[in-house]
Specification:
2 copies of one chain form a homodimer. Chain A is α+β, with helices and mostly antiparallel strands. Helix content of chain A is 35%, strand content 29%. Chain A has 5 helices and 12 strands. In chain A, the strands form 3 sheets. A 5-stranded antiparallel β-sheet of chain A has the order 10-1-2-11-12, with helices on one face. In chain A, strands 5-6-7-8-9 form a 5-stranded antiparallel β-sheet, covered by helices on one side. In chain A, strand 8 and strand 9 form a beta hairpin. The longest helix of chain A has 25 residues. Chain A is globular. The termini of chain A are far apart.
């Protein structure tokens, strides 16, 4: 499996994705699930993918080879999302029948976010069928893949007014919870922060095994949770 | 959906289940998912169910009507689990074909735990196919239904040496996280604690809307998490 999440706050957008892929437990590998299309001063487009790796790679490859007339030519992110959805449909209709014969799921989910010069930053989720939704002020974050373990902490912390740094920290806590409870999600984590109207990437960081900050976050979070747990009074036992 | 969890610690077993059932969002109802078979001094058997409500009710009904020669006659919990699995297979083979024609899933999962006089407390999970597994010292807890939201906290807190009170509190925190992130799991929560070798129920409590202890637990947990979150240092932003 995979875990990817992104949060659109008023200051910008934060993206995070893990790097574990598996086709059976005897075929585990490391692939980044984050692709960045950047034209500094004009657009930053970030794509996170969960699902069939061959499909996501085909979609990314086609988006890249057609970028000049495709995702780099569009004047708004809605049109970019439309192209991603159409390209996904194209790949699924090309590869799907052969995969379905082998009972292999051809589909995948994407998170697409960023900013095109002339409009505000936007964040979309593209479904395996190629249709898509956009975040709103009330629901500013999206998750794909193994979403459930790490959802409670995002629900508690992230809203539209959360700072970019807090949103980034919260996504990392969400990844820590997920990786602790599900082996199919693993390091490295790709983290990217995009500051509104900068039209270039603010921060890109790959968190690998032994990363000092992530280890400290994990340790403090774990000991903090245990401490809060002891502060909650016992149930009266009668 | 449903959420049920149970933890077998050295002092006994704690069980918890929610009470929301739904057949579509326009058919939401409240049913307990916890059934207790108690013969004080001889056995305490607790059954938690997640899945098709008609199937679980049929299984419970058959177990009850045949208890004298069935689950009350057996001298160990392994044999009781075998009967539950067989009864589940019987109901699924009776109702399954008609349900499958309507594309309705006939199956369900059970957690079965307790103690039969003469052996130690034991805890089992029975799968929709009627086969089952037992907890171990290394993996002392089980969950069925919407298990993922509430798993990280149990993974951090519960081990075989956790006290019965802490295990109960941890399950309630796990339910709080689940209910916050998933509407299909809802109050009341049925909570039951069984103290090893007592051969009677130690505590049984139904947590309903407005329950003062649960509200306080929920408030303290939420504010505690936010406090711990602020204690984790920010990512350096270069």
């Amino acid at each position: 499996m995979t875990y990817c999440a992104a949060a659109a706050v008023s200051a910008g957008i934060v993206f995070a994705s893990d790097s574990r892929t598996n086709a059976g437990v005897d075929h585990v590998a490391t692939y980044t699930k984050m692709t960045v299309f950047e034209v500094p001063g004009d657009r930053v487009l970030v794509l996170l993918a969960a699902g069939n790796l061959a499909t996501t790679q085909s979609v990314v490859g086609l988006l890249r080879s057609r970028a000049a007339e495709g995702i780099h030519a569009k004047t708004n992110l809605f049109d970019v999302a439309t192209i991603v959805g159409e390209t996904l449909r194209e790949v699924v209709s090309r590869d799907g029948p052969a995969l379905e014969q082998a009972k292999i799921e051809p589909g995948c989910n994407f998170i697409l976010g960023g900013q095109v010069r002339g409009e505000a930053p936007r964040l979309f989720q593209i479904y395996p069928q190629g249709n898509f939704i956009e975040t709103s002020r009330e629901t500013p974050y999206l998750q794909i893949g193994e979403t459930k373990y790490g959802k409670p902490i995002i629900d508690r912390v992230v809203n539209s007014d959360t700072s970019l740094k807090d949103a980034a920290k919260c996504l990392l806590v969400s990844f820590d919870s997920t990786m602790r409870s599900n082996l199919s999600v693993g390091l490295p984590i790709d983290l990217l922060a995009y500051e509104k109207d900068s039209l270039k990437i603010t921060l890109r960081r790959r968190i690998v095994e032994g990363d000092e900050y992530f280890r400290e976050l994990s340790r403090l979070w774990s000991s903090g949770l245990r401490r809060v747990f002891t502060e909650v009074p016992d149930l009266s036992w009668q």
